[in-house]
Design brief:
By secondary structure, the protein is α/β, with parallel strands linked by helices. Helix 2 packs across helix 3. Strands 2-3-1-4-5 form a 5-stranded parallel sheet, with helices on both faces. It has one domain: Rossmann fold, CATH 3.40.50.300. The protein has 9 helices and 5 strands.
Length: 184
């Protein structure tokens, strides 16, 4: 079983990579965001990015820095099929998954203005924000000295491959194909 972890900046195209891997390589998808939405709802908190972040940080502080992805990995490993765990946000998550067999970490990035335009277009619950809020959210998640909090900068640095997604989907898919075909 190959586990692909997906990390990257806000609006860079992580979901596009996930969809492509699911459709073209039959990976199963396990979403940290979906896991957290369920926790946010169970705690009867507002459905927004701040609640997602607070719940994630609380779960990691209470259990372990890798708790969320470890829970998703348990589900994934019950039916050994290539799987994607998206979205990796801490070094502890990377370290834990690295010990569980064949693990590949992909980071997705793009120019901030392009990413903001994508965020506005996707129009999810957490995407109704100004550019300033978008940028502040990203900066808050980019680094932390607390192992239980988001540290996208360190995750991107630890990635096996960084996909630059400033172009069209076909260019992104070409990058994904080149990488995934080495592992399958």
């Amino acid at each position: 079983m190959v586990i692909v972890g997906i990390t990257g900046t806000l609006g860079a195209g992580k979901g596009t990579v996930v969809d492509y891997l699911v459709q073209h390589f039959q990976f199963r998808h396990f979403s940290v965001r979906d896991y957290l939405w369920n926790e946010v709802r169970a705690r009867d908190l507002p459905l927004n990015r701040d609640s997602l972040t607070a719940v994630a940080n609380d779960l990691r502080a209470t259990h372990s820095p890798s708790f969320i992805v470890d829970e998703l990995y348990k589900i994934a490993s019950a039916q050994p099929q290539n799987a994607i765990i998206e979205s990796i946000r801490t070094v502890g998550e990377i370290d834990s998954l690295s010990k569980k067999g064949t693990f590949l970490l992909l980071a997705v990035d793009a120019d901030p203005k392009i990413r903001y335009e994508r965020v506005v277009l996707r129009n999810s619950e957490t995407d109704h924000i100004s550019y300033e809020t978008f940028w502040a959210n990203e900066q808050r998640e980019m680094s932390s000295g607390d192992v239980n909090k988001q540290n996208l900068g360190a995750c991107i640095q630890k990635a096996d491959y960084v996909l630059l997604n400033n172009g069209n989907q076909e260019e992104l898919y070409r990058q994904v194909n080149e990488i995934i075909n080495k592992y399958l």
